[in-house]
Design a protein that fits this description.
23% strand, alpha/beta, 5 helices, 5-stranded parallel sheet, 138 residues, globular
Length: 138
């Protein structure tokens, strides 16, 4: 299954190092292609055709780590590409949220969009490790 992450803006320090770290860890089980766009107007055109688009939104469904692994397993069974959408400092517009097939939340707290990107990668890492029946605590 191909996984893409479309993020508004470039990742910068101090988040860039953690972003690279989790992308390296994911490489073995589930590589993630990251596409950085300058502004949200470019997001919709970069979503791969026939992919399951998932907007990260504070009003979306929240899951714990086992929940993420079950959710990812279900997406794998669907045999569709998976595409995560992360907005900029203002989040995602209602038009982009409507374009998404699903909305997920990383929790009720407000966090910087670059931190949300790192948290998503970390949760994907935990999910693939759980699915591989490998320990995931670092």
């Amino acid at each position: 299954m191909r996984v893409t992450l479309i993020a508004v803006g470039k990742v910068k320090a101090p988040f860039a190092e953690a972003d690279a770290h989790y992308r390296r860890l994911l490489q073995r089980h589930q590589p993630v292609e990251v596409i950085e766009v300058r502004d949200e107007a470019q997001v919709a055109s970069r979503i791969p055709d026939r992919s399951h688009a998932v907007a990260l939104d504070h009003d979306g469904r929240a899951m714990d780590s086992p929940g993420w692994s079950s959710w990812l397993s279900e997406r794998r069974l669907e045999a569709r590409e998976l595409c995560f959408l992360i907005g900029g400092p203002e989040g995602l517009s209602s038009a982009t949220l409507e374009r998404a097939d699903e909305r997920l939340s990383l929790g009720p707290q407000t966090m910087a969009h670059q931190l949300a990107r790192v948290v998503l990668l970390e949760q994907l890492f935990r999910a693939v490790k759980i699915l591989a029946d490998e320990p995931y605590h670092l």
